[in-house]
């Protein structure tokens, strides 16, 4: 669980100023949720009503903030109301800061990362036609709790009902495991986050169920390449915008699109810490990286349009056009001369 009081940063890299277009102002909602302006927003003069069931802190672009909340005395939409409430609570407590992990913390992050990766390796052979995502959830839960003596971070996280996220076909992220059997040709992202010794490790990968279409193979491949291209750029002095640019560029030259409403995130004692790691952006923009930062990169890449929709369960995010989408995620440490992938699986060679 995110606990603002335990997430106090030691080193403030920046207080209020944002870097270029990186969102600057702390608000609340899913830390990975970034409202996007839509045509309707412009017409009606306010953001659309999103249901926001998950509410760790969020940064919202200044422009959106001033349009939607600060400039209004009375919030007009349920989203405004929620954001205004959380604004009052969070903005005074949590400045725009990124924690630099100590050597001891990094050791704990290594352990948590390795455990998260091991859950994916454990579950891989069970992702077969006929199994349910509930069954996969149960197996992961038992493994994390009993074998690893760790905690599945999603369980009860702002009310999330299960221990893992399973996102099938056109589900972008935060899919809730259920009792529907996987069928031949499905693709599924399994997203694992464990807490060990107070520190989080967060990783996800795509699985093909039986034999999948060429389109499915393609979106799985491109999204993984996007992640790898982002990771390769991580080193002190590189900027978040360099990473976002490389990811967006690789998706778009391959006629795919990047989901913008959700992003990667700092990670440590908190599940979702600063900074936000956007999967799109401009080279040379954004916060410079420093050794000791830990964050995730987790691009969500669509075959069709980039737009998404939140289902009424308050969690499941789907592509608006119902076309396929895929995501891969790693937890990364910035080292003195580059990066270390804390959630590396044994088949990966970074
Ligand atoms: N693991 C997801 C991430 O990559 C977050 C899941 S939050 C949950 O940030 F509540 F949906 F589990
Ligand atoms: Co994550
Ligand atoms: Co994750």
Describe the structure.
- There is one protein chain.
- With 350 residues, the chain is α+β, with helices and mostly antiparallel strands.
- The chain has 2 domains: 25-90, no CATH class; 103-341, Creatinase/methionine aminopeptidase superfamily (Creatine Amidinohydrolase, Alpha-Beta Complex), CATH 3.90.230.
- Helices cover 28% and strands 20% of the residues.
- It contains 7 helices and 17 strands.
- The chain has helices spanning 39-44, 62-70, 78-90, 103-123, 133-147, 214-232, 240-253; strands spanning 25-28, 57-60, 151-152, 165-168, 171-173, 187-196, 199-208, 257-258, 264-266, 273-277, 294-297, 300-302, 308-310, 317-319, 325-327, 330-334, 339-341.
- Strands 3, 4, 6 and 7 form a 4-stranded antiparallel β-sheet that branches.
- A hairpin with a 6-residue loop joins β9 (264-266) and β10.
- α6 runs antiparallel to α7 (240-253).
- 50% of the residues are buried.
- The site of 2-amino-4-trifluoromethylsulfanyl-butyric acid has 14 residues, from β6.
- Quick one: biggest sheet? 4 strands, antiparallel
Q: Extract low-pLDDT stretches.
A: 1-29, 42-78, 80-93
What proportion strand?
15-25%
What name goes with the CATH superfamily of the largest domain?
Answer: Creatinase/methionine aminopeptidase superfamily
Which molecules other than protein and nucleic acid are bound?
A: 2-amino-4-trifluoromethylsulfanyl-butyric acid, cobalt (II) ion
Total strands: the figure is: 17
Task: Please give the CATH architecture of the largest domain.
Answer: Alpha-Beta Complex
Shape: globular
Number of domains: 2
**Topology pattern, helix = H, strand = E:** EHEHHHHEEEEEHHEEEEEEEEEE
CATH domain topology of the largest domain: Creatine Amidinohydrolase
**What is the mean pLDDT?**
82
- How far apart lie the N and C ends? 30 Å
Q: Please count the helical segments.
A: 7
* Rg (CA only): 19 Å
State the share of residues found in helices, binned by percent: 25-40%
